[in-house]
TrEMBL record:
The keyword DNA-binding does not apply. It comes from Nitrospira defluvii. Residues 1-25 form the signal peptide. This is Sulfate-binding protein. The gene is sbpA. The lineage of its organism: Bacteria, Pseudomonadati, Nitrospirota, Nitrospiria, Nitrospirales. Keywords: Periplasm, Signal, Transport. Belongs to the prokaryotic sulfate-binding protein family. NCBIfam families: 3a0106s03. The keyword Oxidoreductase does not apply. SUPFAM superfamilies: Periplasmic binding protein-like II. It is found in: Periplasm.
Length: 342
């Protein structure tokens, strides 16, 4: 038999009878793609705990890779080819991009807490002693007050920030006796007046906090959980809770197409269930996130502030309505940015 014929015969044998990998020889790997803010909670506590949990339950050693970025940028990366098996994003509309792309095929809202893994509220971070006497949203419009929040074009957290301002404006307008559409105009004007004082719009909520820590700005609009751990560590900041603010809801979902192709659906589904359980929810709480597990939420309630006029995205008409009102080409935030740039 010639050498060339031997090569062809070997190739045929391998095609018909491929070499098998011994069971357990390859370590399965899961990729978690998440928005930037909960990085420490996942990497320091939750992922190591789950890997240990899985090993004890199944005897299998697994690996996790994690990617953290601004929520909107992360959603686009997954749509454009990032092979994430699990997406933990900042807001529902980012996760819906994966649904529309056919990557998330199941009804992710059918899970525990309708797919919401943690909550938070939008609050105001100020320097120690609150030198500019910031108490509420109107104070962010005063001359000489420098404001930070990230860009809603890339950051889900920034969208929540703008939603908080808008919803607060609706409530403040109503308390002044305004009715629709005057109260809506008041809310849009509040966004416009605050935007005039915005010093920097970073790409993500985490980058915005880093800018604040460098000494830029008098007040940062951010999730409370970005500053609670820092304040606990003795950093020279304070949290101010405006009376009117929004509940931030952070969704999570298995990315069906990728998890199935990577043959890790069982791990990914169990990980998401683990995140809703007491151990992970307690860890989230310790990193400043409000847990959605009822028992842990009750036991940690005293650790969190409870502003009197809190509202939800549903109370504002849902994300489709809010996105059109704020971030569409004629939305209130879009027009505020255009007016400032002129």
């Amino acid at each position: 038999m010639t050498f060339s014929n031997l090569v062809r015969l070997t190739a045929l044998v391998l095609l018909l009878f491929p070499l098998s990998t011994p069971a357990g020889a390859e370590t399965r790997e899961v990729l978690l793609a998440a928005y930037s803010v909960p990085k420490e909670a996942y990497e320091k506590r939750i992922i190591p705990a789950f890997i240990h949990h899985w090993k004890q339950r199944t005897g299998e050693t697994i690996q996790f890779r994690s990617s953290f970025a601004a929520s909107g940028a992360q959603a686009r990366a997954i749509v454009e080819g990032l092979d994430a098996d699990i997406a933990a994003l900042s807001l529902e509309s980012d996760l819906q991009q994966l649904v529309q792309a056919g990557l998330v095929a199941h009804d992710w809202k059918q899970g525990p807490q309708q797919g919401i893994i943690t909550t938070s509220v939008v609050a105001l971070g100020v320097r120690k002693g609150n030198p500019k006497s910031i108490q509420g949203w109107e104070d962010l419009t005063r001359p000489g007050v420098e404001v930070l929040y990230p860009s809603p074009k890339t950051s889900g957290g920034a969208m929540w920030d703008i939603v908080a301002i808008y919803g607060a404006g609706l409530q403040l307008g109503a308390r002044k006796g305004l009715t629709e559409p005057a109260s809506r105009d008041y809310a849009a004007d509040l966004i416009n007046r605050i935007q005039r004082n915005v010093k920097v719009m970073d790409k993500s909520g985490r980058e915005s906090v880093t800018t604040f820590e460098r000494g830029v700005g008098d007040v940062i609009v951010t999730y409370e959980n970005e500053l609670l751990p820092r304040i606990a560590q003795g950093r020279p900041y304070e949290l101010v809770y405006p009376p009117e603010t929004v509940v931030v809801e952070n969704p999570i979902a298995l990315v069906d197409r990728h998890a199935d192709r990577h043959q890790v659906r069982d791990i990914a589904e169990t990980f998401i269930a683990f995140l809703h359980g007491p151990e992970a929810q307690q860890a989230f709480a310790e990193f400043g996130f409000r847990p959605t597990n009822a028992a842990i939420a009750t036991s940690t309630a005293a650790a969190f502030a409870h502003p009197p006029h809190i509202f939800t995205i549903a109370s504002l008409g849902g994300w489709d309505h809010v996105f059109a009102a704020l971030f569409s080409p004629r939305g209130a935030w879009t027009r505020a940015v255009e007016a400032r740039d002129r």
